[in-house]
Write a structure and sequence with these properties.
Structural class: alpha+beta
Oligomer: single chain
Largest sheet: 9 strands, mixed
Strand content: 15-25%
Radius of gyration: 31 Å
Helix content: 25-40%
Length: about 600
């Protein structure tokens, strides 16, 4: 008999629950996330999770929340039973869990036990479910709160086990899910154990020690994302049309190769949303190379009627009624914070520099050749070329590697205390400017710094009266291939607004007649080829004005003040003063730092003076 001729029938509840489990419980981390969210909604102040075999053989989630009576226990494991929709209003969801499917779904594919006692009750009650088959509640001993134990996850659906990774990988997914929830709830203590080993134990924030919610949140983020993030984080707090965005965003110089360290929350719910991630990328596009990503932890509070959290079974995605407001809020808030940061650079840059200077302890000590140590130190044969290097070192001193100009009368005296970036004292290897400040030393990458300065000037000119151009005495022909020449010719009018005037020149080439005056003697060949490549990636759907940050960055990258150019003291000090007055001058257009500041105290420690 064909499937079309068979009569309709209602599926058994156990099978329905297993189908739902396929959507809600993809792996042990999914089960832990649902159970921990229930504990948070129950008002827990402490939540402890224990795993065995990555959660495959055993999961325990215990909390000190409100607890449940025997009757509530039986309802809690039924489909679509919940206490979180008192008015049956799907537009007014104010909790983390709400679908009413988590507990029955988990119980349908495992050996499941839930034990609970309300505060003030004399006895706790326990309920066992095996593969969806429920037993009667029984008395148990348990403190106030709830404990859920899940054994042999997916034993009732063995096909699902084939998709699980090794225990270490599954444990990592559980830890990530718990960390995300812990970030949003610093007033709750979270503990995770695996194979009798504590993976993390995050204490609850103490209101008596931390005066504000921001301080509590930053302390929790420091425990999870690292102290370097907390030391280099900018505070975010912005409002727009009922939406509020708070949290912390790392300086551009503190970046990572992936988006793994970008955490986004909507009404306390951790989400992975393409809209929000795209807004973060757009806000930082002027400060980071395309293969680098910022570190952020952003918390969006949205009116319940303006966001749909009932989109995804696992509740990891949301849908906004007006996505434009949210994107504009995120981009605007992040750019405002980055602008306010001025030329501040990441502290990790200076720490890394100091770390490179410090001697490494615990390694073999190098001794003069031919000496027998006799004191426990190891001795090794001289590296190849050491004799030549030693001879060169002992040779007469001929030419300094650092050029020191005679200071002008304006900067000869004083220690640079009047200026944040100090006054120039020398130029190293015709690439780095060394300046003295009141508190230490600043080393500036002259090319990276000038690149940022030109970038900001180009943007300012474009926004006011247009980029000023200079005509080339001899127009330059650039071979970019037939496709590249066609793309550039199509965008010639827009490029002219940016100060670059070009036109087709034969097959596969363009001729450049004018360039932005600010660029001076730019690398025209490299500039035009880079623009042709970027236009291929940009496509035809966006104008260059919409991508002005990237285009101006490309123009500025091909500037005249590059590594290898000698600068006078006046030129060096002029560059420092411009950096102090220019927004975002702490990093170049690719997210690299433009300067490193070494505090005098740290330098003194290097020499044992402290």
């Amino acid at each position: 008999m064909s499937a079309l001729s068979r009569p309709l029938r209602r599926l058994p509840s156990t099978l329905v629950n297993r189908i739902a489990a396929g959507e809600v419980v993809e792996r042990p981390a999914s089960a832990v996330k649902e159970l921990v969210e229930n504990a948070i909604d129950a008002g827990a102040r402490r939540i402890a999770v224990v795993l065995k075999d990555g959660g495959r053989s055993f999961i325990s989630v215990a909390d000190d929340g409100v607890g449940m009576s025997p009757g509530e226990l039986q309802l809690a494991v039924e489909r679509h039973c919940t206490s979180k929709l008192p008015d049956d209003d799907l537009d007014g969801i104010r909790t983390l869990g709400f679908r009413g499917e988590a507990l029955p779904s988990i119980a349908s594919v495992s050996r499941f036990t839930i034990t609970s006692r309300p505060a003030g009750a004399d006895t706790a009650w326990s309920l066992d479910i095996e593969g969806g088959v429920k037993r009667a509640p029984r008395p148990a001993a348990h403190p106030a709160g709830t404990r859920v134990e899940v054994r042999d996850l997916f034993f009732a659906t063995p096909a699902r086990l084939k998709f699980l990774k090794e225990p270490r990988s599954e444990t990592g997914h559980v830890a990530d899910a718990m960390r995300r929830l812990a970030m949003a709830h610093p007033w709750i203590a979270f503990r995770l154990e695996s194979e009798d080993r504590t993976l993390f134990d995050l204490p609850a924030a103490d209101p008596s020690l931390l005066e504000t919610a921001d301080a509590a949140r930053l302390a929790r983020l420091a425990a999870i994302m690292g102290r370097e993030f907390a030391d280099n984080a900018l505070t975010i707090d912005a409002n727009r049309e009922g939406f509020r965005l708070t949290g912390f965003a790392g300086l551009p110089t503190l970046n990572r190769p992936t988006t793994q360290h970008q955490y986004l929350f909507v009404n306390g719910r951790p989400v992975r949303d393409k809209l929000l991630a795209g807004a973060v990328r757009g806000a930082y596009q002027d400060f980071l190379a395309r293969d680098r990503n910022p570190m952020v932890a952003l918390f969006l509070e949205a009116p319940t009627g303006m966001v749909d959290v009932n989109v995804h079974p696992a509740k990891t995605e949301v849908r906004f009624r007006d996505a434009g407001i949210v994107r504009g809020l995120i981009v605007g808030a992040l750019r405002t914070a980055l602008s306010a940061a001025g030329h501040r650079a990441s502290t990790t840059v200076a720490e890394a520099a100091l770390g490179a200077f410090r001697p490494h302890t615990g390694q073999a000590m190098a001794l003069p050749l031919g000496r027998n140590p006799g004191n426990g130190y190891s001795w090794s044969a001289p590296p190849r070329g050491l004799a030549e290097a030693a001879a060169a070192f002992m040779a007469p001193f001929t030419e300094p590697s650092a050029r020191v100009d005679t200071p002008s009368s304006e900067t000869a005296n004083g220690n640079g205390g009047a200026y944040p970036l100090g006054v120039a004292r020398a130029q190293l290897h015709e690439t780095y400017i060394v300046a003295q400040t009141e508190q230490g030393v600043v080393i500036v990458d002259q090319h990276a710094a000038h690149e940022r300065l030109l970038h900001e000037k180009l943007k300012t000119q474009l926004e006011t009266d247009g980029v000023k151009r200079q005509a080339l005495l001899l127009p330059e022909v650039v071979d970019v291939g037939e496709d590249g020449a066609h793309r550039l010719a199509q965008r010639a009018a827009e490029l002219a607004e940016l100060g670059l005037v070009l036109e087709p020149f034969g097959l596969g080439a363009v001729v450049v007649r004018e360039t932005p005056a600010l660029l001076g003697e730019a690398d025209i060949q490299g500039l035009v080829r880079d623009l042709a490549d970027e236009l291929a990636e940009l496509g035809d759907h966006l104008s260059l004005r919409e991508k002005v940050e990237e285009v101006c960055g490309t123009l500025a990258c091909h500037t005249s003040v590059r590594a290898g150019r000698r600068l006078t003291v006046e030129e060096m000090n002029a560059l420092l003063r411009q950096m102090e007055a220019t927004p975002h001058s702490g990093q170049c257009n690719h997210g690299r730092p433009t300067y490193v500041e070494l505090k005098l105290a740290d330098i003194e420690r290097l020499f044992g003076r402290r």
